[in-house]
Amino acid sequence: MKYSILITLMLSASALLATDKAQSVDTAAIEQTNAELSRVKAEVAQAKAEAALATTKANEAKKESAKIAQELAFVKAEKEEELAAAAAAEEVLRKNKTIHISVVGQGVAPMNTSSPAQAYALAKRAAIADAYRAIAEKVKGVRIDGQDTIKNMMVQRSTIRTYVQAMVKNADIVETTFKEGLCEVEMEILISHSDFAQ
Amino acid sequence: MRSRDGNLNFSLRLCSIVIFSSLALCADEYLISYKYIVKDATLYNENLFISKAMTKCQGNPQEEFILQNSGEDSLKKLISKNSEEFIEYIHKLGLNVSHDEKTTNLQNSYTTVLTLKTTCFKVDFNDNFAIIAPLK
Lengths: 198, 136
What we know:
The complex is a heterodimer of chains A (198) and B (136).
Chain A: H1 2-89, E1 98-108, H2 116-139, E2 143-151, E3 154-168, E4 172-179, E5 182-192, H3 193-196
Antiparallel strand pairs in A: 1-5, 2-3, 4-5
Chain B: H1 4-26, E1 27-39, E2 42-52, E3 65-68, H2 75-81, H3 83-93, E4 95-104, E5 107-125, E6 129-134
Antiparallel strand pairs in B: 1-2, 1-5, 3-6, 4-5, 5-6
Protein backbone atom coordinates (compact mmCIF):
# COMPACT_ATOMS: atom_id res chain seq x y z
CA MET A 1 0.00 0.00 0.00
CA LYS A 2 2.78 2.37 0.97
CA TYR A 3 4.52 1.67 -2.28
CA SER A 4 1.42 2.25 -4.26
CA ILE A 5 0.86 5.62 -2.60
CA LEU A 6 4.48 6.49 -3.19
CA ILE A 7 4.29 5.50 -6.80
CA THR A 8 1.11 7.53 -7.24
CA LEU A 9 2.76 10.52 -5.65
CA MET A 10 5.79 10.12 -7.82
CA LEU A 11 3.68 9.81 -10.92
CA SER A 12 1.66 12.88 -10.07
CA ALA A 13 4.84 14.80 -9.32
CA SER A 14 6.34 13.72 -12.63
CA ALA A 15 3.13 14.65 -14.40
CA LEU A 16 3.21 18.06 -12.77
CA LEU A 17 6.82 18.54 -13.75
CA ALA A 18 6.07 17.42 -17.31
CA THR A 19 3.19 19.89 -17.71
CA ASP A 20 5.34 22.74 -16.41
CA LYS A 21 8.02 21.85 -18.90
CA ALA A 22 5.51 21.63 -21.73
CA GLN A 23 3.98 24.93 -20.77
CA SER A 24 7.36 26.61 -20.75
CA VAL A 25 8.17 25.12 -24.15
CA ASP A 26 4.85 26.31 -25.58
CA THR A 27 5.30 29.97 -24.48
CA ALA A 28 8.78 30.12 -26.00
CA ALA A 29 7.46 28.77 -29.28
CA ILE A 30 4.55 31.19 -29.22
CA GLU A 31 6.89 34.07 -28.51
CA GLN A 32 9.13 32.98 -31.32
CA THR A 33 6.18 32.57 -33.65
CA ASN A 34 4.84 35.94 -32.58
CA ALA A 35 8.18 37.52 -33.27
CA GLU A 36 8.35 35.80 -36.64
CA LEU A 37 4.82 36.86 -37.33
CA SER A 38 5.54 40.45 -36.46
CA ARG A 39 8.65 40.32 -38.60
CA VAL A 40 6.72 38.82 -41.47
CA LYS A 41 4.03 41.42 -40.95
CA ALA A 42 6.63 44.15 -41.04
CA GLU A 43 8.12 42.61 -44.16
CA VAL A 44 4.69 42.41 -45.73
CA ALA A 45 4.01 46.02 -44.80
CA GLN A 46 7.35 47.03 -46.26
CA ALA A 47 6.63 45.00 -49.38
CA LYS A 48 3.22 46.60 -49.58
CA ALA A 49 4.75 50.03 -49.23
CA GLU A 50 7.33 49.13 -51.87
CA ALA A 51 4.58 47.83 -54.13
CA ALA A 52 2.59 50.99 -53.61
CA LEU A 53 5.69 53.05 -54.39
CA ALA A 54 6.35 50.94 -57.48
CA THR A 55 2.73 51.34 -58.53
CA THR A 56 2.93 55.10 -58.16
CA LYS A 57 6.22 55.07 -60.05
CA ALA A 58 4.67 52.93 -62.76
CA ASN A 59 1.72 55.27 -62.91
CA GLU A 60 4.06 58.23 -63.19
CA ALA A 61 6.05 56.46 -65.89
CA LYS A 62 2.81 55.66 -67.67
CA LYS A 63 1.76 59.26 -67.44
CA GLU A 64 5.17 60.39 -68.71
CA SER A 65 5.09 57.92 -71.57
CA ALA A 66 1.58 59.07 -72.43
CA LYS A 67 2.80 62.66 -72.32
CA ILE A 68 5.79 61.80 -74.54
CA ALA A 69 3.52 59.91 -76.91
CA GLN A 70 1.23 62.94 -77.01
CA GLU A 71 4.20 65.22 -77.67
CA LEU A 72 5.45 62.87 -80.37
CA ALA A 73 2.03 62.82 -81.96
CA PHE A 74 1.96 66.60 -81.78
CA VAL A 75 5.44 66.88 -83.37
CA LYS A 76 4.43 64.34 -86.02
CA ALA A 77 1.27 66.27 -86.77
CA GLU A 78 3.30 69.47 -86.96
CA LYS A 79 5.79 67.84 -89.33
CA GLU A 80 3.01 66.48 -91.46
CA GLU A 81 1.47 69.92 -91.58
CA GLU A 82 4.83 71.40 -92.55
CA LEU A 83 5.29 68.81 -95.27
CA ALA A 84 1.80 69.42 -96.54
CA ALA A 85 2.46 73.17 -96.55
CA ALA A 86 5.78 72.59 -98.36
CA ALA A 87 4.04 70.35 -100.89
CA ALA A 88 1.40 73.00 -101.37
CA ALA A 89 4.04 75.70 -101.71
CA GLU A 90 6.20 73.68 -104.09
CA GLU A 91 4.94 74.23 -107.54
CA VAL A 92 4.65 71.29 -109.83
CA LEU A 93 4.84 71.76 -113.56
CA ARG A 94 1.61 70.45 -115.00
CA LYS A 95 0.24 70.46 -118.50
CA ASN A 96 -1.10 73.80 -119.75
CA LYS A 97 0.46 75.54 -116.76
CA THR A 98 3.52 77.72 -116.42
CA ILE A 99 5.89 78.33 -113.54
CA HIS A 100 7.27 81.78 -112.99
CA ILE A 101 10.75 81.94 -111.51
CA SER A 102 12.33 85.18 -110.45
CA VAL A 103 15.94 85.58 -109.29
CA VAL A 104 18.42 88.35 -108.56
CA GLY A 105 22.00 88.08 -109.77
CA GLN A 106 24.87 90.12 -108.42
CA GLY A 107 28.10 91.12 -110.07
CA VAL A 108 30.90 93.55 -109.40
CA ALA A 109 33.09 95.45 -111.78
CA PRO A 110 36.80 94.61 -112.02
CA MET A 111 39.25 97.01 -110.39
CA ASN A 112 41.05 97.98 -113.58
CA THR A 113 38.25 99.44 -115.68
CA SER A 114 38.90 102.36 -117.97
CA SER A 115 35.52 104.04 -117.51
CA PRO A 116 32.38 103.81 -115.37
CA ALA A 117 30.48 102.64 -118.44
CA GLN A 118 32.87 99.73 -118.89
CA ALA A 119 32.61 98.94 -115.20
CA TYR A 120 28.83 98.90 -115.49
CA ALA A 121 28.86 96.69 -118.60
CA LEU A 122 31.24 94.18 -117.04
CA ALA A 123 29.42 94.12 -113.72
CA LYS A 124 26.13 93.62 -115.53
CA ARG A 125 27.57 90.67 -117.46
CA ALA A 126 28.74 89.10 -114.22
CA ALA A 127 25.35 89.72 -112.62
CA ILE A 128 23.59 88.09 -115.57
CA ALA A 129 25.78 85.01 -115.19
CA ASP A 130 24.94 84.89 -111.49
CA ALA A 131 21.23 85.16 -112.26
CA TYR A 132 21.53 82.36 -114.83
CA ARG A 133 23.24 80.24 -112.20
CA ALA A 134 20.45 80.97 -109.74
CA ILE A 135 17.81 79.96 -112.29
CA ALA A 136 19.70 76.77 -113.08
CA GLU A 137 19.95 76.00 -109.36
CA LYS A 138 16.25 76.49 -108.87
CA VAL A 139 15.10 74.56 -111.91
CA LYS A 140 17.61 71.75 -112.18
CA GLY A 141 19.26 71.59 -108.78
CA VAL A 142 22.75 71.58 -107.32
CA ARG A 143 25.22 68.77 -106.96
CA ILE A 144 27.03 69.07 -103.63
CA ASP A 145 30.20 67.36 -102.57
CA GLY A 146 31.71 67.77 -99.11
CA GLN A 147 34.98 66.62 -97.60
CA ASP A 148 36.38 67.12 -94.11
CA THR A 149 39.89 66.13 -93.09
CA ILE A 150 40.35 65.43 -89.38
CA LYS A 151 43.73 64.80 -87.78
CA ASN A 152 44.37 64.26 -84.06
CA MET A 153 40.72 64.98 -83.33
CA MET A 154 40.97 68.37 -85.06
CA VAL A 155 39.47 69.53 -88.35
CA GLN A 156 42.38 70.24 -90.65
CA ARG A 157 40.46 71.10 -93.77
CA SER A 158 36.79 71.42 -94.61
CA THR A 159 35.82 71.60 -98.25
CA ILE A 160 32.41 71.96 -99.87
CA ARG A 161 32.05 71.90 -103.64
CA THR A 162 28.87 72.65 -105.52
CA TYR A 163 28.23 72.12 -109.20
CA VAL A 164 25.44 73.33 -111.43
CA GLN A 165 25.02 72.21 -115.02
CA ALA A 166 22.04 73.40 -117.04
CA MET A 167 20.85 75.03 -120.21
CA VAL A 168 18.85 78.22 -119.76
CA LYS A 169 16.94 79.97 -122.51
CA ASN A 170 14.30 82.68 -122.74
CA ALA A 171 15.22 84.34 -119.49
CA ASP A 172 14.20 88.00 -119.30
CA ILE A 173 15.93 90.83 -117.50
CA VAL A 174 13.32 92.72 -115.49
CA GLU A 175 15.42 95.32 -113.72
CA THR A 176 19.05 96.33 -113.48
CA THR A 177 20.54 98.43 -110.71
CA PHE A 178 24.13 99.59 -110.32
CA LYS A 179 25.15 101.03 -106.97
CA GLU A 180 28.64 101.50 -105.55
CA GLY A 181 30.23 99.05 -107.94
CA LEU A 182 27.63 96.34 -107.37
CA CYS A 183 25.29 95.49 -110.18
CA GLU A 184 22.07 93.64 -109.46
CA VAL A 185 20.04 92.08 -112.22
CA GLU A 186 16.54 90.87 -111.57
CA MET A 187 15.72 88.12 -114.00
CA GLU A 188 12.65 86.03 -114.55
CA ILE A 189 11.79 83.00 -116.58
CA LEU A 190 8.50 81.33 -117.45
CA ILE A 191 8.71 77.58 -117.67
CA SER A 192 5.96 75.68 -119.39
CA HIS A 193 5.36 71.98 -119.77
CA SER A 194 5.96 72.16 -123.51
CA ASP A 195 9.55 73.35 -122.92
CA PHE A 196 10.37 69.90 -121.60
CA ALA A 197 8.21 67.88 -123.98
CA GLN A 198 10.28 65.73 -126.29
CA MET B 1 -0.04 86.76 -179.34
CA ARG B 2 -0.16 87.03 -175.55
CA SER B 3 -2.64 89.21 -173.74
CA ARG B 4 -1.54 92.12 -171.57
CA ASP B 5 -2.54 90.24 -168.40
CA GLY B 6 -0.47 87.23 -169.35
CA ASN B 7 2.61 89.38 -169.88
CA LEU B 8 2.11 91.04 -166.52
CA ASN B 9 1.79 87.72 -164.80
CA PHE B 10 4.94 86.46 -166.47
CA SER B 11 6.91 89.57 -165.59
CA LEU B 12 5.76 89.38 -161.96
CA ARG B 13 6.88 85.79 -161.75
CA LEU B 14 10.21 86.64 -163.30
CA CYS B 15 10.74 89.53 -160.91
CA SER B 16 9.87 87.45 -157.88
CA ILE B 17 12.26 84.70 -159.00
CA VAL B 18 15.02 87.25 -159.46
CA ILE B 19 14.36 88.85 -156.06
CA PHE B 20 14.20 85.59 -154.19
CA SER B 21 17.26 84.19 -155.90
CA SER B 22 19.18 87.38 -155.13
CA LEU B 23 18.09 87.13 -151.51
CA ALA B 24 19.10 83.52 -151.41
CA LEU B 25 22.46 84.34 -152.93
CA CYS B 26 23.00 87.09 -150.35
CA ALA B 27 22.24 84.70 -147.48
CA ASP B 28 25.43 83.47 -145.89
CA GLU B 29 26.00 80.88 -143.24
CA TYR B 30 28.19 81.58 -140.25
CA LEU B 31 29.36 79.54 -137.33
CA ILE B 32 29.13 81.46 -134.10
CA SER B 33 30.16 80.45 -130.62
CA TYR B 34 30.15 82.52 -127.47
CA LYS B 35 31.59 81.93 -124.06
CA TYR B 36 32.16 84.02 -120.99
CA ILE B 37 33.60 83.25 -117.63
CA VAL B 38 32.72 84.92 -114.37
CA LYS B 39 35.06 84.34 -111.47
CA ASP B 40 34.09 85.47 -107.97
CA ALA B 41 31.40 87.87 -109.22
CA THR B 42 33.77 89.50 -111.70
CA LEU B 43 33.84 89.00 -115.45
CA TYR B 44 37.02 87.12 -116.14
CA ASN B 45 37.00 86.33 -119.84
CA GLU B 46 34.64 86.72 -122.80
CA ASN B 47 34.95 85.21 -126.27
CA LEU B 48 32.76 85.56 -129.33
CA PHE B 49 33.95 83.50 -132.28
CA ILE B 50 32.51 84.15 -135.74
CA SER B 51 33.53 82.18 -138.77
CA LYS B 52 32.09 81.65 -142.21
CA ALA B 53 30.78 78.11 -142.63
CA MET B 54 32.91 76.07 -145.02
CA THR B 55 30.24 73.47 -145.57
CA LYS B 56 26.51 73.83 -145.95
CA CYS B 57 24.60 73.75 -142.70
CA GLN B 58 21.55 71.62 -142.12
CA GLY B 59 18.33 72.83 -140.56
CA ASN B 60 15.72 75.53 -140.80
CA PRO B 61 16.06 79.11 -139.61
CA GLN B 62 14.52 79.78 -136.20
CA GLU B 63 14.01 82.87 -134.03
CA GLU B 64 15.19 85.61 -136.36
CA PHE B 65 16.92 88.74 -135.19
CA ILE B 66 17.32 91.96 -137.15
CA LEU B 67 20.60 93.82 -136.88
CA GLN B 68 20.77 97.43 -138.02
CA ASN B 69 23.19 97.65 -140.91
CA SER B 70 24.82 100.70 -142.42
CA GLY B 71 26.29 99.11 -145.51
CA GLU B 72 28.51 96.57 -143.83
CA ASP B 73 29.03 93.25 -145.55
CA SER B 74 31.11 91.71 -142.77
CA LEU B 75 29.22 90.03 -139.96
CA LYS B 76 32.05 90.62 -137.51
CA LYS B 77 31.90 94.37 -138.03
CA LEU B 78 28.13 94.32 -137.98
CA ILE B 79 28.03 92.44 -134.70
CA SER B 80 30.72 94.58 -133.12
CA LYS B 81 28.56 97.60 -133.89
CA ASN B 82 25.51 95.96 -132.31
CA SER B 83 27.30 93.81 -129.77
CA GLU B 84 25.02 94.47 -126.80
CA GLU B 85 21.85 93.67 -128.73
CA PHE B 86 23.42 90.62 -130.31
CA ILE B 87 24.66 89.24 -126.98
CA GLU B 88 21.23 89.80 -125.49
CA TYR B 89 19.81 87.85 -128.42
CA ILE B 90 22.30 85.04 -127.84
CA HIS B 91 21.21 84.93 -124.21
CA LYS B 92 17.63 84.52 -125.37
CA LEU B 93 18.60 81.65 -127.64
CA GLY B 94 19.91 79.79 -124.63
CA LEU B 95 23.25 79.33 -122.94
CA ASN B 96 24.76 76.39 -121.18
CA VAL B 97 25.45 77.25 -117.56
CA SER B 98 28.30 75.56 -115.77
CA HIS B 99 28.90 76.65 -112.20
CA ASP B 100 31.62 75.36 -109.94
CA GLU B 101 31.81 76.67 -106.39
CA LYS B 102 34.39 75.76 -103.78
CA THR B 103 34.32 76.62 -100.09
CA THR B 104 37.48 75.74 -98.20
CA ASN B 105 37.63 76.53 -94.49
CA LEU B 106 34.73 78.94 -94.93
CA GLN B 107 36.46 80.80 -97.77
CA ASN B 108 34.36 80.78 -100.91
CA SER B 109 35.32 81.06 -104.56
CA TYR B 110 33.38 80.21 -107.69
CA THR B 111 33.56 80.12 -111.45
CA THR B 112 30.55 80.37 -113.72
CA VAL B 113 30.89 79.64 -117.42
CA LEU B 114 28.13 80.54 -119.85
CA THR B 115 28.52 79.00 -123.28
CA LEU B 116 26.73 79.10 -126.57
CA LYS B 117 27.89 75.97 -128.35
CA THR B 118 29.00 76.48 -131.92
CA THR B 119 25.84 77.13 -133.89
CA CYS B 120 25.27 77.73 -137.57
CA PHE B 121 23.48 81.02 -138.34
CA LYS B 122 21.96 82.09 -141.61
CA VAL B 123 22.56 85.76 -142.28
CA ASP B 124 20.71 87.79 -144.93
CA PHE B 125 22.49 91.03 -145.64
CA ASN B 126 20.44 93.97 -146.83
CA ASP B 127 21.18 97.65 -147.30
CA ASN B 128 19.81 98.86 -143.96
CA PHE B 129 19.55 95.71 -141.97
CA ALA B 130 20.64 92.10 -141.73
CA ILE B 131 18.51 89.20 -140.65
CA ILE B 132 20.27 86.57 -138.59
CA ALA B 133 18.72 83.27 -137.54
CA PRO B 134 20.13 80.04 -136.11
CA LEU B 135 19.67 76.89 -138.15
CA LYS B 136 18.17 74.04 -136.19
